[in-house]
Amino acid sequence: MMPRLMAFLVCLLTIAATAAGNSAPGKIIIAHRGASGYLPEHTLEAYSYAFALGADYIEPDLVLTKDKVFICLHDIHLEATTNVEEVFPDRHREDGKWYAADFTLDEIKRLSAHERVEERFPKTGPRLEVPTFEEFLQLIRGLNASTGRAAGIYPELKQPAWHRAAGLPVEEAFLEILARYGYTGPDAKIFVQCFEADCLLRMRNELKSELPQIQVMGSGEDAAAMLSEEGLKRIAEYAQGVGPAKPAIEKDPAAVARAHAAGLLVHVYTFRADSVPTMYKDFGEELRTFLHTFGVDGVWTDYPDQALSCVAPPPDPESRKANPGLISNLLEHK
Ligand code: G3P
Ligand code: CA
Fold first, then answer.
1. CA atoms of 33 and 46, how far apart (whole Å)
2. How far is ligand 1, taken at its centre, from the CA of residue 243, in Å?
C-alpha cells in the first residue's frame, strides 16, 4: 500500500478509536431547507414537517427582496424553485435569471414554490408560498410553544457580498429581526451560518453579535486550508464551529479531531436518502460513519427522521469502526 494511503488508513482507524469516546448524545440533526426530502424545500410546510419529525434545528437559507425583506430561498434567483418564469416572463436579467432582489415581496408572494428535485414532489402539487424569514420565525416560535419543545434554528445568509454590492447589506437587518424574536446572546438556540467569513466577522466584531456562528465551507482547496490547524485557529476567533461538505471529511477525517482541539463543533452537509454515494452500502451506513466513526457533532439532512434514527451510538464500540470494505472504498474515493 502506498505510504499516503497507509497514513490515511491509520488516520481513519485512529479517528474511529477516538470517536468511540465521542459518540455521546448531543449530536444534532439539522433539517436541510426543512424536511426537503418529503416536501418542497424552503416552504412553511417543509419546516413544519421537519419540526414534526423531531429535527433538532431547522435551516432556512435567506436572501433579500428588492424592498429589503428576508425571504427563505436557497438561490439568489427564483426560477429553480418557483414558477417565476410563468408569472413574470419578462423580468429576467441578461443572464436569463430572475433575481429575488429585482422583485418586491408582494410580487414574490404571487409565485408558487415547488421542489427543486422533481422526482421527490411533483411540481403540480398544491400551491405553496415562498415564506418570509419572519413567517419562519413565527412558525417555529408557535410550534415550540404549542408542543413544549425547543427546536433550534439554523439560518444561512446567502451571498452577503453580492447583496452588499447590490445595495442590500444583510448583517444589521438580520440581527435586528433575530433580536425581535428573542435570539440574542451566546445561549440562544440558533446557529448562524455563512460561507463568507467577512460576514461572520462583521457580525461578531462590528455588530457585537454573541450568537453562535458556524463557518460553512465546501470541500475543495479553500476548505482544506480552513480545516488546517492554522485555519481552524483563525475560525475559532469568530465562530463556534465549522460546516464542511461531506467529501472534505472523507478526504481528511482527522479534521474532526483538529476542529475539536480548537474548540470547534463540526456539522457536515448534506445527507440525502435518495442520493447515497456508492461507497456506502446504505443511508444508515453513511450517516453512522460520519456520526460515530468520524465523530462529527451534527449533520444537515433532507430526511431528518432517518438521520435521527442513527444518532444513538452503536452499543458495541467495535462496530463504530469503519468496516474494511468501506475503508477501501473511501481510499478509492480519495
Ligand atoms: O448551508 C449548509 C448546507 O445547507 C448546505 O449548503 O448549498 O444547501 O445551502 P446549501
Ligand atoms: Ca444552507
1. 8
2. 9
